[in-house]
Amino acid sequence: ALNRPRAKIAHVYRGTFMHSTQDTTLEIIEDALLGVDTVGKVSHLLHSPKKKKKKNVNDFHALLRCSEFFMPGMVDTHIHAPQYSYTGTAMDLPLLQWLNTYTFPVESRFKDLKFAHRVYTEVVKRTLKNGTTTACYFATIHTDASLLLGKIANDFGQRAFVGKVCMDRNKSDYKETTQECQKETCRFIAELLNKKYPLVKPVVTPRFAPSCTGDLLGQLGAIARKNNLHIQSHISENVDEVKLVKELFPESKSYTDVYHKYNLLTDKTVMAHGCHLTDEELTLFSETGASLSHCPNSNISLCSGLLNVRNVLKHKVKLGLGTDVAGGYSASMLDAVRRTLDTSKVLTIQNPKHQALTFDEVFRLATLGGSQALFLDDQTGNFEVGKDFDALRVNVAPPGGPIDLILCDKPKVGSGALYKGDDRNIVEVFVAGRKVVPFMEPAAE
Ligand code: GUN
Ligand code: FE
C-alpha cells in the first residue's frame, strides 16, 4: 500500500531459506532465489525455476548442496554490554548479592571511555559473529560510554537498541540523583538521535524497580511516552527481588503493577525474565502489549527460576530470547536457543502434562519472536518481501568446523546446525542487506 518507488535489485541469493512466518513456526524453501534491493530490503523470494532432475545424483554433491542455508538473523532481546567483561566468572551468588558483589563494581569502571571502548568493541564483534543481527543492550549509568556503545554498534553494522542505565537508589555510590538520571537520559536520547545512526535507537532504561524511586520511574515513563521510545527493564526474576519490590512499593498490587502505574508498560516495552509472574500479571502484559525477554541461561546460572514459556504464549504475551550476559555466561543466541529447549524439557520432567516447546517454536522465538518483542516485526524477523535483509548464511559442515557428519534430511538440517554448531558455522552475516561478517573493520577516525 505504500507508495514507495521501487529500488533496484542489488543482489540475488540462491539456496535454501528457512524462516518463521505469521502462520508457520518454520517454513523451509528449497532452492529459492531471494533478491535484495539497493536499500537492503528483500525484493522477492521465489522458488527458482525447476531444473530437470538429473539421474545418478552423486550423494556427495547432494550433501554439499544441502549443507548451506539462509536463516533470519537472531535477535538478542536482553544483553548487558559492560558485563561481557566478566562473563563466566561470577556464577556463584543469587541475583541481589550478585549485583552488589560483582556487577556494580565492574559497571562503575565504564566511566573510563578507553575501557568501555575495549569491552564494547569485543561484545559487538562476538555477538555479530554468533549471529545476533539485532541486540537490545543495557549499557551503564555513564552517558558518554553509552553513546560510545551506540557508535561501535553502528560502526560494525549491528542493529541495536542502547539504554543508558538509570538508578537513583543503591547501597553503593554506583547511582545518580533522580535529577541526574532524568537530565542524562534526555541528553543521551538527544545525542544518540542526533548521530543519525540508521540502525541504532535509544531505549529508556530504568535498571529495575528496586534501584529506582517511584519519582524516577514516573519521570522515565513520561520521557518514553513523550518521545515514543522503547523501554526496557527487569521484572520478577528472583523471589527475593519480588519480595523486596513488595516492601519498597507497598501500594502496588504486584511487581507488574509498579511499572504499569508509572506508564512503563507499553507495546514498545521489553521486560527481562518474568520467571515468577502470576497469570494476572501476564494478562496485564498482554493488555498493554508489553513483551518479555526469556533469558534461560541467566535464570539457571543465578538460580533465579524456570520461566514457563508455554504459559506466557498461552496468555498471548510477545516473547523473545535473551542472553542476559553476564547473568548468562554465553553471549551466543545459539546457547539461548538450547537453554530455552532445555528449560522447557525440565518443566516437562517436573510435570508430564507440560507441553514442551519444539525446536521449530524456539527457532521462531529467536528470530521473528524477538522482532515482535522489540516492535520491529514490520522491519525484520523473516524474509518477507519489503523487510530488511537481516540474515545468516549457515554452513552445516565447514572444513574444520564442529560438525563432522550430518544426515541430509532437509527438515532437520536447521535443528542439527543450531544444536551442534557454533560461530564457525555462521559464515556470513547480513544486516539491512550489508555483509557485516566477515568483519569490515571500521574506518579510522
Ligand atoms: N536486575 C537488575 N539488574 C540486573 C542485571 O544486571 N542482571 C540481571 N540478570 N538482573 C538484573
Ligand atoms: Fe539483565
Structure summary:
With 445 residues, the protein is an alpha/beta fold.
Number of strands: 15
Q: What order do the strands of the largest sheet run in, or round the barrel if closed?
A: 5-6-7-8-9-10-11-12
Architecture of the largest domain, CATH level 2? Alpha-Beta Barrel
* Chemical compounds bound to the protein: guanine, fe (iii) ion
- What would CATH call the class of the largest domain? Alpha Beta
Largest sheet: 8 strands, parallel
Gross geometry:
globular
Strand content: 15-25%
* SSE class: alpha/beta
The helix tally amounts to 14
Unreliable spans: 55-62
- Radius of gyration, taken over Cα atoms and rounded to an integer in Å: 22 Å
Task: Kindly report the name of the CATH homologous superfamily of the largest domain.
Answer: Metal-dependent hydrolases
What series of H and E elements makes up the topology?
EEEHEEHHEHEHEHEHHEHEHHEHHEHEE
